[in-house]
Amino acid sequence: MDREMAMLREGLLAMIAREMPDAARVEIVAIERAASGNSSENWFVDVRWTRPGSVEEQRRLVLRRSPANEIVRNSRIDEFLLLAALNDTPLPVPKVHWIDGDGRWFGRPAVVLERCAGRDDRALLTARNKAGLDEPTRLGLARDMVELLAAIHSLELDRLELPASIERAEGVPSRIELDRQEREALADEVVACVEMRAAAWWLRDNLPPPPRRRVLVHGDFRPANLLVERGQVTALLDWEFAHVGDPAEDIGWYLAPRYRDEHFIPGHWQPEDFMDAYERKAGLELDRASVDWWAIFAQYKLCAMVLAARKAFVEGDAHRIPVPARKMLHGLLDAIDAQERKAA
Amino acid sequence: MNIGPGEAAEGIRKLLRATIGPELGSEQAVFTLRRIMTILRETNWDDAAFALMAENAALCTLAAQVGSVLDETELADGRTDALGRWRSLAARAEMPRSYAEAAEINARLRAAIADTIAELAATPSAAGARRKMIGCFLALHADA
Q: Are A306 and A328 in contact (CB under 8 A)?
């Protein structure tokens, strides 16, 4: 770890020297690996420098580096370009500073972002939340999240300069995303995962129609990816899944069986409340059948990530400790079974 | 008598919690230790081989069940090889000599099923087979 940190320190100093040639007395005050980020390594870095006129500045930064075994295949460059585009919108996203697209400074591709105030908490909406937020505050946050999602989906795509991979090809979003995910799932198989093959078969047979309007899909919209301070959202993070597509995809992801226990407040904030509030804020009518499909697709995608982590672990990446796949796969098949029963 | 795999895993988990955990200085190390302890707790150390054999038996049963559906399904000529391969593994699946052999049979069974799924996916009239297979997979996971 010491050697790793020394390499990152050296890389940061070299990057800052190039990006800010007028900065003098650059000093890395602190650097620590953050205990989050499954698809990236996140490092918290405090840096100090002096600008012309003896102005001393200190920055709290996050260095997001691609892991050795990349599970999410969107590139750091695309994430950087997307965030740069979103920095010109009112969305609460971290300001982007610099990018190491080819890993020349950090050994692997990386981006350097502003570190926003607040903390992430997967259990944010539950009574187990780390900050001890009471129910009315949590309910307020749940509503703020809907507002935020509606704001993302309301962005005018023509006005954003999006990287080509995020734009996606023309076509039916459900088919495009399934094709993409299935390719990745097959590439990550250690043995043939017949549960996933059967699920893909079902998903392909039940593709929802294209949406009326394509939007920017965050792709991992959930409480775990928010930073919150004093009951207020300060930032939405983890945009590596983002792409242009069907708004129902983000809704389905939020409703995925895997997350049901964490995303709602029993008796106060149920899936229908979430969808109704979204429809009011976004001015869009959700096709419930499409949402159901996307929720199952979300579970499929989560299973694919678990299997990818398993493969990386088996191949020697000790940082990829996989959660047991069996329960996840059962959740996927169970959701398909429930959908079939509903249809019958 | 040697300690069993489950007992060893539980002992290691206790050591990690009581001795290693308090010594860790970084959030990332604590986070990783928690995940390691979760894996130690959730892995079925004692019965892994039996569970794999049970899964293989269920996959063989599934072959028979899907076979009966396939009889009613119009498949193009020459598209039943995978099902034949799948069924032929049943005898070997009954009594493997090692965990590695059970795992190898499992991989072969799964490959044959995957090929069968691919054949059925290319057959529009096979919707019933699909439903049946998903039901069988569900039962497989519920029993495991």
A: yes
Quote the minimal CA–CA distance from A205 to chain B in Å: 9
Residue A71: per-residue pLDDT: 52
Helices (DSSP H) in chain A: which residue ranges? Answer: 2-19, 76-86, 135-153, 164-167, 173-187, 194-205, 247-255, 260-263, 271-282, 288-314, 325-343
Phi-psi region of B44 (alpha: psi -120 to 50; beta: other; left: phi over 0): beta
pTM: 0.88
The closest CB to that of B27, out of A35, A192, A337, belongs to A35
Tracing tokens 């159901």 back to the chain, one arrives at A292
Identify whether the C-beta of residue A142 lies closer than 8 Å to the C-beta of residue A274.
yes
Determine whether A217 is exposed, middle or buried from the number of CB atoms within 10 Å of its CB (0-12, 13-18, 19+): buried
For residue A59, the cross-strand partners are A47
Chain B residues touching A191 at Cβ < 8 A: 106-107, 110-111
Separation of alpha carbons B93 and B56, rounded Å? 6
- Residue showing tokens 């020297």: A17
Average pLDDT over residues A96-100: 94
Q: How confident is the model at residue B122 (pLDDT cuts 50, 70, 90)?
A: confident
Percentage of the residues of chain A whose pLDDT score is greater than 90: 67
Instruction: Indicate if ipTM > 0.90.
Output: no
DSSP readout, A108-152? Answer: S-EEEEEPPSSB--TTTTSTT-TT---HHHHHHHHHHHHHHHHHH
Mean pLDDT of A111-116: 94
Cβ-contact A315, A69 below 8 angstroms:
yes
Q: How many CA atoms lie within 13 A of A156 on its CB side?
A: 3
Confidence of residue A125 (pLDDT cuts 50, 70, 90): very high
Q: Which three-class secondary structure state does DSSP give residue B144?
A: coil
Strand partners, A100: A110
* For A326, nearest residue in chain B (alpha carbons): B141
B24-46 pLDDT, tens digit per residue, is 988 878 888 888 898 898 888 99
